[in-house]
Amino acid sequence: MIMGRHSALIPALLCLILSLPLHAKTHRSSELGWAKGQDVTEAFGKLLADGMLKPGDELRLEHTFRIGGSHQLPDNSTLSAVNGAGFDVTDAANPKSSRALLEFGNEVTIRNLTIRYLNTPPLGPTGGKHGVHFTRRLGIQARDKKGLRIENCRLTGSINHHLRLTDCTNIEVVGTHVAGGYWSIMLTGCNKLVFRRCLIEQCQGDGIKTGGGESGAVRNVLVEHCVFQDNARDGIDTTGGFNDSIIRNCIFRRLGVSGLDLKSHYESRTGSIEDLAPENIGILVEKCLFHDMPNGLVITTLDCGRRKGSGHELLNAANMKKYAPHDIDINNCVFGHAEKPLRSAHTGGYGVNYPTAKGEHMRMILLKDAYDIRYKDARMFGERVMPVHISSIGGSGHLSKEAADGITTGITGNVLDQPAKSVRPGTTDVPFAHGPQLLKP
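Above: the chain sequence. Below: its structure as C-alpha cells.
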C-alpha cells in the first residue's frame, strides 16, 4: 500500500538524481598551491583549459590573487571566496583585448567574490570621457546564457562595464556592490532578471543601462531594495526597454540627470520599425525615494531614423501609439532635495539650464512624448519641486512633429498634502547588507 502510494514519485526522483552532477567537488586555492598575492593568470587559465573545474564543481579562493586576461567559466560551475578574497586585475588600465575577465557559461554562480580593477581612474562621477575617466576593460560577460547568479560580490574600478549580459535569461544579482564603471551594468535583449539588495554607485554614466538585442527589448526585470547613488547620469537608463518590469523599495540619490530615464530609443539596421519591439511598456515603480537630482523620472521617445535626414523616420502618426512609452505607474514614491542650492548647473546647482529665478529646482517627472502615465500618492520635501513638466521634442532632430502629434501626451495623478520627511544631506546609509560576507574557509 505504501509502495503504491509513492510509486509515482520514484521516476521523478530518479530524474532528479540523474540530473545532478556526479562527483561535484570544492577546489580550494591552497590545495592548488596558490600563494597570497600570486599572479594566477596562467594557473587559472590552465585549470580551466584542462577541465579541472567540472560541472557542479566550486573553486573557492582563500586569498586575493593578481590576474589578467580572459577566462571562460564552464557550465554549472561556482567561483567563490572567503573573507574578502578575490582578484586584483592587473591589466585594467590598458587591456590587450576587448574580451571580458570572466566569460560565463550556463548556470554559473559567483559568490562572495571581490574583484578590484587596479590603476583605473578615480571612481565617479568625474566625467564620461573614454580613456580619461574610465578604461575599456570589461569585467564579466555572458551571451545567450541562462541561470546565472552573482551573490554578495564587490566589483570596483572605473572600467567600461562590470557586467555585460546579452540575450540572457533567468539572472539573479543579489547583495552585490558595484562601484565605478561607465555603463556599469549593461543589459541587451535580456529576459527575467532580478536585482535585489544591490548598491550601485559612483558611475561615470549610468548604473544600469539597457539596449535592444536579438531577443528584443529587455523585459521582466525586478529591481527591489537597491540603492543607486552618486552617478554622473542616471540610476537606470532603459534605452533598450524595461517592459513588464517592477522597481520597488529603491533609493535613488545624488544623480546627475535622473533616477529613471525611461527612454524608448528606436534605431533599425534595415530602416524598418517593424524589426523592433516596442519598449518601456507596462512598468511599475513603487515605494521608491528619489532625492537630489534634476529629475526623478524622465520619459521620452527617440526616433534615430531622423539622424539620416528627412524621409528616414521610423515613427509616424500611425505607429507612434504602439511604440511610445505607456502604461507606467508610479505609486507611493517620495521626491525631494536636501543638498544642492537653488542654482543652475554652472553655479553649483542641478543640471541643464534650470532652475530659473522663479522656476523649479527638481522635477518629479519630466514627460516628453509618452502617454498613459499615472502617479499616485506622491510625497515631496524641499523647495520648488515641480510634480510634472511636459515638454514634447516633436519637430526636433529626435522625433518628428507628425509622430509626436500621433499621441495625446497623458499623465494623471495626485500629490499628498503632507510633506515627506527630509533626508540627511550627504547620507550614504544603505539599509541592507551587501558585498562579501564573512564565511569560514
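The helical segments are 2-6, 9-19, 41-49, 320-323, 401-404.
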